[in-house]
Each structure stands twice: as structure tokens, then as C-alpha cells.
Design a protein that fits this description.
CATH class of the largest domain: Alpha Beta
CATH architecture of the largest domain: 3-Layer(aba) Sandwich
Number of helices: 5
CATH topology of the largest domain: GIY-YIG endonuclease
Structural class: alpha+beta
Bound molecules: zinc ion
Shape: globular
Number of domains: 2
Strand order of the largest sheet: 2-1-3
Oligomer: single chain
Distance between the termini: 32 Å
Helix content: 25-40%
Amino acid sequence: MNEHSNTFAKKLKNIFEKSFSCFKFINFFSRNGTIQNLFARNYKIQNNESAPGVYTVPCNTCDQIYVGQTCRNLLHRVKEHKYAVTKGHSSAIADHAQSGHSVCFENAKIIHSEHNLQKRLIAEALLIRNNSTFINNKASFELQIFN
Ligand SMILES: [Zn+2]
């Protein structure tokens, strides 16, 4: 476990504690019963575009970000986002770009490496919930407690 893992785990814990009075909820998702154990071993602050994980794509025009998750190479996923923009398809990123904003694809980065799909989806949902994200940036998996 490193310093970044601890920082990320503490942030997640704070998010849960601020948002929910019954914190025991997280025990459903962790055999070891703590958020720190849930995410500790896999959090990496460095870019790691080839590993599955949760990623962000910032905007040059405003402070909003896009949060997504992928099991594939991030560069490939970013190409798909760019394609959606150039073809005028509807997606959270394409809609943001079509509103006149400059999406900063070159600064897309994996902020949480995670091979386990369920953990990726939880991390994605938490990061979307607690950041100012593009309109229509929806979590792939909606935690019922967020409704
Ligand atoms: Zn923007």
C-alpha cells in the first residue's frame, strides 16, 4: 500500500461518510470491509493507459471533466470518443464538444487502475457523483444508494 492508495481511500471514505449516514453499505462490496482494502492495491497516480481502469478527460474551456471506465487501452477508448465527436454522434463527450467546448483528449488519463469490473464501476460512480462532470456523463452502473 502506498501514499496515493491511502489518499484515495481516505477521499472515498469521506465521500461516503458525507453522503450516507449508514456507512455499513460499503461492506456489501468488500470482503475485508473497508474502502481502503477495496481500492488500496490498485490505485496509481501515474498514467497507465494500457491497463483497465477509471479515466478522466478534461475540458480546455471549462472546469468540467468526463469520467469513464474501460477494460481496454485508454488510447483506443479516446480514439472512439474522438470519432464520436468528428461524426457528430451523441455521447457525453461529443455533446460537450458540440456545445462549443474544447475537450482536451491529450490529457486523458487513467486515475484508478482496476481489473475488477465491479470495483471499476463503483469507483466510476463515486467519481462522477463527486466531480463536476459533463452533462450526460452517467455512471455505467447506478448504485441504488445514489438515487
Ligand atoms: Zn467544457
